Amino acid sequence: MSQPIDLRSDTVTRPTPAMRRAMAEAEVGDDFYGEDPTVNRLESRAAELFAREAALFVPSGSMGNLLAIWCWTDRGQEVVCDSRSHSYVHEMGAMSAIAGVMPHTVASSDGILTWDRIAPHVHTGGGYYAPTGLIELESSHNLAGGTVYPPEVIADVAAHAHAAGLKIHLDGARIFNAAVALGKSVTEITPSVDSIMFCLSKGLGAPVGSLLVGPREFIAKARVRRRILGGAMRQAGVLASAALVALEESPKILARDHENARFLAEGLAQIPGILLDATKVATNIVIFDLDVRTTAAAFAAALRERGVICAVFGPQTIRMVTHYDVDRAAISRALETIRAVL
Ligand SMILES: Cc1ncc(COP(=O)(O)O)c(C=O)c1O
Fold this sequence. Notes:
By secondary structure, the protein is of the alpha/beta class. It has 2 domains: 5-12 and 253-341, Alpha-Beta Complex (Aspartate Aminotransferase, domain 1); 17-249, 3-Layer(aba) Sandwich (Aspartate Aminotransferase, domain 2). Helices cover 40% and strands 17% of the residues. The protein is globular. The structure holds pyridoxal-5'-phosphate.
């Protein structure tokens, strides 16, 4: 059988030949002592790209989000976040287990929290309520199907949050996808948030790593706490070199992933038994429901047997994600297989 068409996630991308070459040739040192020139270059470049004072290379997006939450809050506070945010749903309760804060979740249909939705959940302390310590937003929003925050919504939330003395952390694991969808730079769409985490190991295709960007003092604190988590690294330039290639080259080709996602969604929407509004697909994530007498797990198993891999997101819900290792022809083959299985 030919290579499986793996649509589970954009995390399954393998490093490009250019990344592998960069890794082989990377100049390295001990990053614990701040002596890895390639890591230093990556952190400076990330800070520059986002127009922030500093950046920190971390092994994963989850660690970046946790560090941001931990560094911005005090124990006993709440983090206001979307009820399907990655930090709340998929990060193993780390914000409570390690940072000692509670998620205060807000429901939304599209993953976009406007200030109107957030405001009733903000507590300034006193009375019977834990004080709000941080607001967390996510763009693009994974579990909401790759939706993108309009920059003016982020700016409005930030203006209100800052007026209330609150910081905003943006889980921008796929912020480059959001920027491409909006036709703007990452700086243009994130000017008012206080910190951003973005991943190199998703659509950008690097093998490992994420970056946390923000003010110098905050990043210095996060660097110490990364050590507490056991996340300080040594010759991490081997990873940072691939990340640098990803950062410079990959954003240019994300539009193709988005076109492929739309093509996939339009094809899926025409298959009887699939419920999907293809017009809502804004980036590289396609989430749909099955309206047939089978479960998502059985459907995914049948697809896998035929060489198409997807993620089960609920009893009747499936997620498929496009990325550079899956081209248009592979998507067409996936659609044929899905049609045959259903
Ligand atoms: C929106 C979002 N945030 C954070 C993460 C965490 O990244 P990592 O898997 O590198 O911990 C993910 C991973 O899928 C994600 O989708």
